Amino acid sequence: MIKNESKDLLIIGIDHGYGNIKTANHCFKTGITGYESEPLFTKDMLEYGGRFYIIGEGHKEFLASKDNDDDYYILTLSAVANELRDVNLTEATVFLAAGLPLTWTAGQKSLFRDYLTKNEKVDFRFDGTDYHITIAGASIYPQGYAAVSQFTSALEGVNVIADIGNGTMNVLYIIDGKPQSGKMFTEKFGTYQATLAIREDFMRKTQRELHDSTIDEILINGTANIAVQDLKIIKASAKKYVDDIFRRLREHGYDENTMMLYITGGGGCLVKNFYRYNTDRVRFVDDICAAAKGYEYMADIQMRNGKI
Hints:
alpha+beta; 5-stranded mixed beta sheet; 16 strands; 34% helix
């Protein structure tokens, strides 16, 4: 969160991922379950518009357009509340800085901006605290680039940015610090596709179900306390997925001998754990909140320069 003194507002960056919602200081699951009456368990509960929502419950299905329902709007309110709670505020004027997949940004940013700013005054209750916010506006930026935006000017030569999220993989070329608008790609090939493939492969080979939490543990850490043969099956499937990542990168022109590769997003742990990469030519942006911070950084610069 960045305070803009001249506008007297708070810039709050939100990375609306398909697996997790990230702000500069928080990360929580992109899950939401709505109730007509107050549910039994009320942790992470948001009340808005006469309904009750448990944040982080369930799994949000992949939607090419994030404004198809109210879920991402409710998740946005929760993200704002988390940031405001850190500084003991319950009332504030906020400017939202968010993002969309690289090649979708131009076509969808107006709709998504309108979606986030559809209500200027918003009153809601989160975790037992009432919040009253004014949404002064929003800007939408390209995913992938945001996570490296604070150091792109220092990048020399040909650099490839691979933002591997839960739902999509975004690829962007940056040459001598300049993003190449003609060399950016978005594919529906995020880490959730790896989870689905591993689950299916495990079922086919063992006739047993595998819980997603076990898969997540292995993807993040490279191992888990399970039977050796089961672990072998899962690791083989994960390696195949990562091999496919690099195959797709090569299809988009990536050459590991002449280009630097910067990997952002949750998929970075898969590359670390299941691929033999060149440590001299591959860099990882490990901060899961890097994109949200990048959105804030870009919005703050534009605001200071009078472009917002």
